[in-house]
C-alpha cells in the first residue's frame, strides 16, 4: 500500500501542479510541503502543525483527507519503538540445581511483598479518586467573541439562548474532545473543525476546533477554539425581512453577480473558510461590524436576514459557500494580496423579483 507521502507527491505530479504555486495558494511554506511528501517529521515544529498542514494539503489536492490521516497515524504507530518491558529476555539453559531451591524461596518472598504493595497502592488510588472528585470546575460564558482556551474534563461552557444559558459539559479530553450537549456527547478530533447543533433544530450553532489534545493523559486537557454562529441566539421577532434595496438604488459602478432569484427574500447561510491568515470584518444586516483575525483552517459562519458586508484583507485565501433555499453555491473571490469589500444581499429588481447578489464595492 502506498504511503501518504507517496500519494501526495503522485497526485500533485499527475495534476501537473507546481509545488511553489501550491505553497503560495494555501499559505504553507514549500519546505513543509516537501516535508509532507518525504514524510520527514523533523521538518515541523510539532505534530499539531504537521497534522494541520497535512489536512490542508490533502484538501487542496482533493484527496480523501480522512484516509490520508489514517495512513499517517498508522505509520506513526508502526514506527513507535517497542516498549522495553515487552522485549523478551533470553533465559540461560544452564541452571545449577543448587540455585533452584534458593531461587524458589526468594520468589516466594518477592510475591508476598508484591501482594502487600499492590494492596497498599489500591488503597492510595482510592484516596486519589476521592480527591479528584473534588477538583474545581471552571465555567466559561460564550459570546460573539472567539473563545480560545485550554479546558479540562468537567469544565462547563455556557451557551446563550433565548431561554437562558445552555450548559455544555466537557466529558472527554483523551485522544478526542468530547462535549456533552442536549443532543448527546459530540466528539471532535485533533485539528478537526466540527459544526455543532446545540438546540436540536438541525442548524449549526457553533464551530469547535481542537488544536492540541493528548493521546495518553486526559489531565492535560484540550486546547480548543470556539466560534458562535452569528445570529444563533437572536429573538424570533428579528426574523422579519425588511429594508430590501431596489436594484435601481445600488451605488456601485461594478456589475453584480446574481446567485439566486425568487419571488420572496429570506435568510441565508454563509460559510467562509480560510486557507491562510486574513484580517476579516463583517457587518450583518443593520448590526455593528465585527473584526476578527483568522488563520489557515478556521471557518466563519453567519445567518443574515437581508445581507452581509465583508471586508477581506487577503481575498485569495478566502473561499465562500452560500446556502439558500436548500441550494449550495461555492465561489472564490479576488487575487493574492487583494483587499476586497463585498456585499452579499437581497435586492428587488424592476420586474418585482428578488435576487440574491454579490456586489464588489468601489
Q: Calculate Rg over CA atoms.
A: 28 Å
Describe the largest sheet: 7 strands, mixed
- Relative helix content: 25-40%
Q: Per DSSP, what share of the residues sits in E-state strands of 2 or more residues?
A: 25-35%
Q: Helical region count?
A: 6
Shape: globular
Class by helix and strand content? alpha+beta
Contiguous uncertain segments of 5+ residues: 84-92, 123-134, 231-241
Beta strand count? 20
Mean pLDDT: 80
Order of helices and strands: HHHHHHEEEEEEEEEEEEEEEEEEEE
Compute the separation of the termini in Å: 53 Å
Summarize the structure in words:
This protein is of the alpha+beta class. The protein is 25% helix and 32% strand. It contains six helices and 20 strands. α4 packs antiparallel against α5 (65-79). The radius of gyration is 28 Å and the shape is globular. Residues 84-92, 123-134 and 231-241 have low confidence and may be disordered.
List keywords for this structure.
362 residues; alpha+beta; five-stranded mixed beta sheet; 6 helices; 20 strands; globular
Structure, briefly:
This protein has 362 residues and is an alpha+beta fold. It is built from six helices and 20 strands.
Itemize the secondary structure elements and their pairings:
Elements: H1 4-14, H2 19-26, H3 30-37, H4 47-60, H5 65-79, H6 97-132, E1 139-141, E2 147-151, E3 156-159, E4 166-174, E5 176-181, E6 184-189, E7 193-196, E8 206-213, E9 222-228, E10 245-246, E11 257-262, E12 269-274, E13 278-284, E14 290-294, E15 299-302, E16 307-312, E17 318-324, E18 327-332, E19 340-348, E20 354-360
Parallel strand pairs: 1-3, 10-19
Antiparallel strand pairs: 2-9, 3-4, 4-5, 5-6, 7-8, 8-9, 11-20, 12-15, 12-17, 13-14, 13-16, 16-19, 17-18, 19-20
Helix pairs in contact: 4-5
